[in-house]
Amino acid sequence: MPGRAKGDKPPAKTEGRAETLPQSATRDDLTEADRARVEAVTRPATIFSKAEKFEAMSGGAGTSIASVNQDSLSQFSANISFAEEESFKLGNALFRKLWVSSPSSTQASDGLGPLYNARACQTCHLKDGRGHPPEGSSDATSMFLRLARAPRTDAERAAIAAHEMLNFPDQVYGQQLQDSAVPGLPAEGHMRIRYSEMPVKLAGGETVSLRKPEYAIDTLGYGPLDPATTLSPRVTQVMSGLALIEAIHPADIIANADPDDTDGDGISGKVPVVRDPQSGKLALGRFGWKAQSATVRQQAAEALANDIGISSPDARRSHGDCTAAQTACLSMADGVQARLGDTEAPDPVLGLITFYSENLAVPARRKASFAETLGGKKVFYEAGCVSCHVPKFVTRRDAANPAHAFQLIWPYSDFLLHDMGDGLADGQPVGVASGSEWRTPPLWGIGLTKTVSGHTFFLHDGRARNLTEAILWHGGEATKARDRFAALEKADRQALITFLESL
């Protein structure tokens, strides 16, 4: 979401008042007794001869213990009510819904595009799993290019500072490259990737080849891009446990931030501050590769608008990402039906899609108590990986849904922004995130990538072909951890990978 588009609700005015992120130094949802319990259960592990209590239940009481198969990431949270199961299933149907162009005889389903990347949420989030770059003859449906530039004027810089904009879209092509279009309209273009191989030597003489991508756009349909526009590739992320992430108390996330590296460990961690479009207030960014969305609902609304071209109460863009320069696109019919509401996906549609997205269960750990897994966990800790991939949290007592309240969860993320170095930099600032900063992605469910998604491509653009390559791409604040991994004996490196595959 590079910025607010025409038709969206304007952010709250900030002139004349200093604004800060609402926060408390300690959790204000707990009694003293609760606080002591939380502090005890979330302490880092020190014993690696046995699994920690409840360690296999990654998503707390909502953890899915269903059989491991291609549907492992598509189960509903185990502790939602029977009535909520119906909402989940209705949301699932809408998540899979194929939208069609306007006008059509299926009035409740039209409004696609006119420029778009996919016709359904499920098309990008296949089996609710991890997206991938195009490989061979496969398409780029689960990967797209964000388009944005940095501010140029004092007014634009002030808008960024006030969190009224995240960055600025390309004047012609908008916020992301749309590689599909409805009949009668040209697509914006098609992503092209060129890889070069980079050898990296590991301890013991083993060599691993990393593939370095270069991105370009073929067959631009509407003239040249602004020379200042940057291209940021993004694969779709795993959908598990989103409401649990939203239920982590801000104080627990902020407590891990050290933006000035005052402790001198080389790890900073910046709090991702965004503006919540519903309340107009500042909030923690929790979702997206650069933590640009505060809530699951915001993430869903932006995906509907930008990826499919469907308007909703929280993103009223019935022509999706079409810009003022794309007059033919803006002149096309939209799918708003007055009898159904003033947007193409009015509530309850957006609400049901949000509920489905919130309540996809985190799968249970596999082999959490096995000796080889515990050995890899010890290596993971000793290498310093837990400095950013914080193992566990207890969600807030007063979460909106009781199913998400006071749950011990194991996401393995601090949900902060970290500088990952030049190797992973995309050069595209997003709000407070610089062109080399990324949100620490949760690791829960990562070991099921091959089973669910049929591939093992990792990182924001899928450049890593396996977990070893993903670790070796770490730079910036993660350089020390990466170098420790590279210096390990082969057996210890494999143990760490075995641990990750159990998550």
Detailed description of the structure:
The chain is α+β, with helices and mostly antiparallel strands. The chain is 24% helix and 11% strand. It has 14 helices and twelve strands. The strands form six sheets. It has a two-stranded antiparallel sheet. It has a two-stranded antiparallel sheet with strand order 2-6. Helix 2 (82-96) crosses helix 9 (349-358) and helix 10 (371-382) crosses helix 14 (490-502).
In summary, what is this structure?
This protein starts with 31 loop residues before the first helix and ends with a helix.
Report, as a whole number of angstroms, the end-to-end distance: 30 Å
Beta strand %? 5-15%
**Which class best fits the helix and strand makeup?**
alpha+beta
Total strand segments: 12
Low-confidence stretches: 1-7, 9-17
Apparent shape: globular
Helix content: 10-25%
Strand order of the largest sheet: 1-3
Mean pLDDT: 94
Number of helices: 14
Order of helices and strands: HHEHEHEEEEHHEEHHHHEEEEHHHH
Q: How is the main sheet built? A: 2 strands, antiparallel
Radius of gyration, CA atoms, in whole angstroms: 22 Å
